[in-house]
Amino acid sequence: MSLPPSSVDVPRVTIRDETLLSDNWGRLTRYEIDFRRGDGRIEAQTREVYDRGEGAVILLYDRDRGTVVLTRQFRLPAFMTPGSVTERLHFFIAPYEAGMKISEGGGEEAEGEDIEVLEMTLVEALEMVRSGEIRDAKTIMLLQQVALAGFMDGKS
Questions:
Q1: Which of 32, 2, 3, 4 is nearest to 16 (CA)?
Q2: Is residue 93 located within the same domain as residue 35?
């Protein structure tokens, strides 16, 4: 879709005002913006953006045994929310072997963490996605990537 010729040089979003609402765990800012619609009309809008910075996500897999390692974390739920949260995650996939496990889990108790390590086959983990038992988007994306990339072809 092409834009009307008169609006080509006009930015899609212009920030008119910025108000810091909170600077605790993350930074919450309210923006008053002018939004240029597809037909060229300018519309005043308000958006709140929660800036959480960057994070990292990893999925460990054992090609020989056809297993993956997941962690179950008992904290506040975290969901990726494009459009209102600026958090950018970096996804990693890495191999592991059975002998690398050093504990059953844990976490920082002072921060309310109680992390359980779960090892299962990739097939079992994908079934948990299908059944709705796994609902975390980051975990789903990594499991699908391992399956699509064929890292464990021939393993159940």
A1: 32
A2: no
Which pLDDT belongs to residue 33? 92
Q: Is residue 156 part of a domain?
A: no
- Are 138 and 67 within one domain? yes
136-156 pLDDT per residue, tens: 888 999 999 999 988 887 654
- 89 and 103 part of one domain: yes
Tokens of 93: 């996939």
- Whether residue 87 is contained in a domain is answered as yes
Q: Is 20 helix (H, G, I), strand (E, B) or coil?
A: strand
Q: Which residues on neighbouring strands pair with residue 46, listed in sequence order?
A: 32
Q: Could you give the CA distance from residue 35 to residue 110 in angstroms, rounded to a whole number?
A: 44
89/57 Cα distance (integer angstroms): 7
Is residue 68 within 8 Å of residue 120, measured between CB atoms? yes
Say whether both 65 and 33 belong to one domain: no
Q: Is the dihedral of CA 86, 68, 64, 144 positive or negative?
A: negative
Task: Note down the domain range covering 83.
Answer: 54-149
For residue 33, give the amino acid letter. I
Which of the four pLDDT bands, split at 50, 70 and 90, describes residue 81?
A: low
Counting the structural domains of the chain, the total is 2
Chain CA centroid to CA 73, Å: 15
